Amino acid sequence: MTYGRFGAVALCALIAPLGAAVAQQGDGTEVQITTNVFKPNKVAPTSERIGQIKLPDGFAVAPFAQGLGNARIVAVSEEGFIYVSRREEGDVLLLKDEDGDGRADGAPVQVAARAQAHGLAIRDGKFYLATVKEVFVADIHKDGTLGPLQMIIGDLPDAGQHPNRVMAFGPDGMLYISVGSTCNACNESNPENATMLRATPDGKSRTIFASGLRNTIGFDWNPKTGDLWGLDHGIDLLGDEVQPEELNKLEQGKQYGWPHIYGKGDIYPQSTPVGGVTKQQWRDQSMPMVLGYTAHAAPMQMVFYKGSAFPAEFAGDAFATMRGSWNRNPASGYEIVRIHFEDGQPKTIEPFLTGFLSDGGKAHFARPVGLAVAKDGSLLMADDANGVLYRIAYSGTETKAAAPAATPAGPMEAQAAEGLNVPIARDRSETQTRQGTGTSQAIAVSSSAFKSGADMPAEHSEYADGVSPPLAWHAVKDAVSFAIIMEDPDAEPVKPFVHWLAWNIPATVTSLPEGLQEQLRLVEPEGVLQGRNTSGTHGYYGPKPPVGDAAHAYHIQVLALDTMLNLPPTADRDALLARISGHVIAKGELVGRYAQTVAPPKK
To answer: Rounded distance, CA 593 to CA 447, Å?
Structure first.
């Protein structure tokens, strides 16, 4: 480790994984990486420095409010109320510009206080606030102040390296919550880390919408197409030019590479997937980035321009803040970028506002984080270093953009509707047994934990241990493998709710112990794959009916197949059913029941 100019640190790392063969360690990897630690000094946002900011012709920037402290996320209501979260102060400020002079009226007002306050969202007259593990909601009063905060979610994953939860309402009316990873690159123990979650507005139900996202703080929906786009933070310590920040089109059930794959399909050298999954297999089941941007620029809040005060050429484009990282010399980021779209597809990511780096790149006077479109069509950008809220406005003569119509909900609703309101697997045509196989066509499935039709012990529910129950069934002549599909046909609004998918269970295996690993591939029994259930996780997901519901029935269906399946573990129930069609030679089920009568301490 050697020390360079400006307090930077150059680090050479020799990565040579060691360990058990089961974990695919000791694979001969040997990569030398040179990386930097560089933190430009913070200086004051003087008029002279602000005057050096560069923007396209016709645009101007000026402070809207100053002295805001650790200003992070910005949200603007339909009435024009401006809300700014402050993570270090643990609160939310309200600002107004009722006289329309482009500057905040008077001092900001604190309207909410919660430790680690960060993500903000507004919908239907209600204000939503996210901390590390909770989401709160409050009514917005006529003057912009808030009513009492009520917790609607209290069990988001814990933090680690990326504790900054952000959220936004999609055009489908659902609440999307980004949960970053706990680390630079690792196998997370909580499947909700490094994901985009999709929750009902009351917080009572949520699923993993997309995974493999290291830290997607900036995301928004294209107002023309309704597609969801997000900017993900690249992995650190890979060098000044690696890894690029990623622009991804986020779709339900898709995996986006992290922690083992990045960019267009590059392999991260140090990590190892669990369960014997190879990195090549992980790459094959991951989505590559659509566009990349300068490594370590650190993308933050992202917003499609939906105003009518910018030139028409900006219609349909998005803007994003780049806060800047510590892991590149010269520093990148410290800017606002424009993501240019044509026909609903991103074409370029280019600087829009630059100049927050000063003194030849040795210092900075702003670190851009929050970004929102104000009621008058200007952009508002929050700086969490010096606590300035900047306003970017256009005063040129070019024809202005027309405000877009409501963002179409179709793409999100179509994804959410996949596999809904259909029979459970046993009653589907895909599971009809083949004729003339010489089997009894029925499998007796049992569990030492409960009898068929009886209540399941609490430890098998997600309200308690969430462990899979022990199962047993009899051997089936001519079977090559078994598959398991567990479904709840009583769930609302997702019917049926798929709790467990497993396949390629060898025909010689006729029982499973309690508490199987919840991962894509099992090492015991060797080679068993576990697909994506409705919660968005892999492996067993126990009963979790709403508190007070009548007992739901959980159908654990075992299917004997005449083949092994060539199907990646990212597959869902419909993909599994399509693949087993014509290969089922016997089937049976065990039905357990579960009701939750007592509310957990946190919802």
So the answer is: 13
